[in-house]
Amino acid sequence: MIKNKLFINSTDHFEGISKEVFDFEIGSYKVIDKYLKSRKGLKLSFDEIQEIKKISKSIEKTIKIMKKLKKFDIF
């Protein structure tokens, strides 16, 4: 990752995915990394690209909510 760019090969990348979002884990795995690794060697379809964008936005929102909840000492 370079400046919120997630490279999936030598030329293609997603912009706007922070390290915090990429490193976000559910269970014992990183969500975006797991998604991409399961498609390694395959060309991503338009729908899959959109799915990755939706996942990253959902993770961003989840992180924001978790930070707010920490203020209430819930975790």
Please tell me about this protein's structure.
It is a single chain. With 75 residues, the protein is α+β, with helices and mostly antiparallel strands. The chain has one domain. The chain is built from 3 helices and 4 strands; from the N terminus they run ββαββαα. It has a two-stranded antiparallel ribbon. The radius of gyration is 14 Å and the shape is elongated. The N and C termini lie far apart (29 Å).
Overall tally of structural domains: 1
Show unreliable segments. none
Overall 3D geometry? elongated
Radius of gyration: 14 Å
Indicate the mean pLDDT. Answer: 90
> Which structural class should the secondary elements be placed in?
alpha+beta
List the secondary-structure elements in sequence, H or E.
Answer: EEHEEHH
Strand content: 5-15%
Q: What percent of residues adopt helix (DSSP H or I)? A: 40-55%
What composes the largest sheet? Answer: 2 strands, antiparallel
Number of strands: 4
Strand order in space, largest sheet: 1-2
Whole-Å distance between the termini? 29 Å
Give me the number of helical elements.
3
Report a brief summary of the structure.
With 75 residues, the protein is an alpha+beta fold. The chain is built from three helices and four strands, in the order E-E-H-E-E-H-H.
What key attributes describe this structure?
two-stranded antiparallel sheet, alpha+beta, 4 strands, single chain, 75 residues
Q: How is the secondary structure organized here?
A:
Layout: E1 5-7, E2 13-15, H1 19-22, E3 25-26, E4 29-30, H2 31-37, H3 46-70
Antiparallel strand pairs: 1-2, 3-4
